[in-house]
Amino acid sequence: MHNNKDLRKNLENIKKKLKDRNFDFDISLFQNLDENNRKLISKKEKLEQEKKLLSKSKDKNNFEKSKEISKEISKISEDQIIAQNKLNKLLHILPNLALEDVPIGKDERSNKLIEQFGTIKKFSFKPKSHVDIGLKNNDIDFETSSKLSGSRFVVLKNKIALLERALINFMLDTHTLEFEYIEVSPPLIVNEDVMFGTGQLPKFEEDQFQIKFENSDQRKFLIPTAEVVLTNLVRNSLIDYNQLPQRYVAATPCFRKEAGSYGKDTKGMIRQHQFQKVELVSIVEPKNCNAELERMLSCAKKILEKLDIPYQIVLLSSGDMGFSAEKTYDIEAWIPSENKFREISSCSSCGTFQARRMGAKYKSQNGNEFVGTLNGSGLAVGRLMIALLENNQNEDGSVTIPNVLKKYMNNLDKI
RNA sequence: GGAGAGGUGGCCGAGUGGUUGAAGGCGCACGCUUGGAAAGCGUGUAAACGGGAAACCGUUUCGAGGGUUCGAAUCCCUCUCUCUCCGCCA
Fold first, then answer.
1. Mean pLDDT by 10-residue block, N- to C-terminus, for chain A (415 residues)?
2. What class does CATH assign to A108-406?
3. Global ipTM
4. Which nucleotide is closest to A74, CA to C1'?
5. 20 to 30 A Cα–Cα from A161, which one of A107, A155, A341, A363?
């Protein structure tokens, strides 16, 4: 969410920057709604002041007049709330603006390759996909999952289930012990305003799974990522500056409808309605957002380096970034069966965009200011498992367990 | 699910109809004191929105929303959350 005053002052500039985010901002619509709203506010305030004076006078002769003003106020208030809602409807769907060093472009074709790590293994045989590898013992079982839950779910069994747990533990240990993230085990169901805070609502409601409780008209949602809960840990709060930065990590299931992606990645575990993800979130002073983004990226990269999986870093273009982001790096891991890199993490700085939505501030030296928020996958577990299985596969169909993972895998060398 | 008690500023905590945006304490900031620090003393310290170049001014806000009243933190209703006890339960 943007600052209203900034918006008013820099309309043309912001319109241009929103265009870079593929958002067509209607300036005159905004101005009409904004002016109408402000007109009603000042009208209301004048009446309120008048009424206040009358009641303070405690003069019985004024009481009738005061009653009349009350009626007028409630009528104008209704109009004002309607005007405010109309304005909010527009403001709430404006995406964040891209930082200066973000490449401008409509879509992923303008993304910028930053670096590559690791050497891509040359197989002496045709590498199998994770789906085929999982067919052994039926440990990645899509047949059963479709029976249970339909498409885009999976049942993992045996050593593959163990591998999932091992990867989660390995990542959590790395982030907590080496990088000072605080481990959190959060709720997976959250309130509507929490989803608003990080920007999933109102614009992306169709991607979310909604939960309805009995005897309540409140809507709740399954989290699409732990970013939602971890970032909102600081919602509606005022933090002392010496309590920053705060760094949180959580491994949670994530739930997504994946609306609009029908037909895409239908095979295998790449795109599921439910998947495990280890998520990193930082709450920082806004001036430190950039440094923290680099730090977060390096924490996520470290996981792939320890597992010796080749990856590349991509700086997303303005048009390819998520709604709340001001700058995003994707980490893409090498997938042998597809002969290409695929997204396994996305690390974003959101500046103060989410903090405004959440009402998250800190006491800085110059008064109370909104905090900066960042989030990144560290990493997506399902996709990491795919990368690991495929990159470490042997001709006989077995998969070699990397050294760092052995202690989490009951000391197995291979599966 | 039953019974009770609560939700006040960054935090704790007074406050039961009229300058209460709100005592007191803690915290924080600045100053004095000190060789330096701590302690001590003094001063200051809510937010949102609107107007203004700014100083500043105005309105709102005591969990949320309604109601009573000329006037509500204070009275009434609904909702919500927290705590305690009982029941049930992984």
1. 86 94 94 93 91 80 82 89 91 94 95 95 93 91 92 93 96 97 92 92 90 75 95 90 90 87 76 95 94 97 96 97 96 95 96 92 84 95 95 94 96 93
2. alpha beta
3. 0.86
4. B66
5. A341
